[in-house]
């Protein structure tokens, strides 16, 4: 499958039925388009099985509640919708996008309690998120935008509105020839990349930011468990920018990123070393087990 995302062959599950890809449309006065009242999940299907599928569906439901709406489908119904979408498109290795949003209705202002909530699921073939960075190491810019305080935005929701500064940061990074950007949080601590969590290595131990102002990714949690099972110490803590010079290796984790080594952040370079390359291979084996 290729081409613009609005002009493809295939099926999208939308509000309880499979529709033709090009017919999966919403009204211009959809509330989510104007006020970002939308949550989503990014998932990968490997050899016919979505990795941590139920956990993703559970988080989708939770994200909706965190931005004040209930998705009108049960966990099992969301799971069935994802499988039906994969089957309808004949895909066993794919990226899966479930999205829920407030649609057009009686309200067309900031408040939208009278508007219906919709759910859709699409899937498509998608390779490495960072291209050849999976082997060479990604190059990251440092974003000027910061992850907001959890008193400002619901940081544990995978909500569309929280990605606006990520989009701007990634655009700025790409304009400089980088793959992505590393973001600080509102206190000035290292937080994450625009759509992936970040890890560092120093003296055989792993360090990763405390997810108190950004999403605690499912891949992040998986990788921490893998490292601890290997007997490697993982320190979840606040990390200051000046610590970058002391770290030897770095990588990103996420459903799209999987485990991607980082070769450079700003002027600081990192080794694409054995720990991260072994971890990437072990993660690949895990998701296909």
TrEMBL record:
It is an enzyme of class 2 (transferase). Its EC number is 2.6.1.42. One of its GO terms (molecular function) is L-valine-2-oxoglutarate transaminase activity. Belongs to the class-IV pyridoxal-phosphate-dependent aminotransferase family. Gene3D superfamilies: 3.30.470.10, D-amino Acid Aminotransferase, subunit A, domain 2. The keyword Transferase applies. The keyword Ribonucleoprotein does not apply. This is Branched-chain-amino-acid aminotransferase. Coiled coil: none annotated.
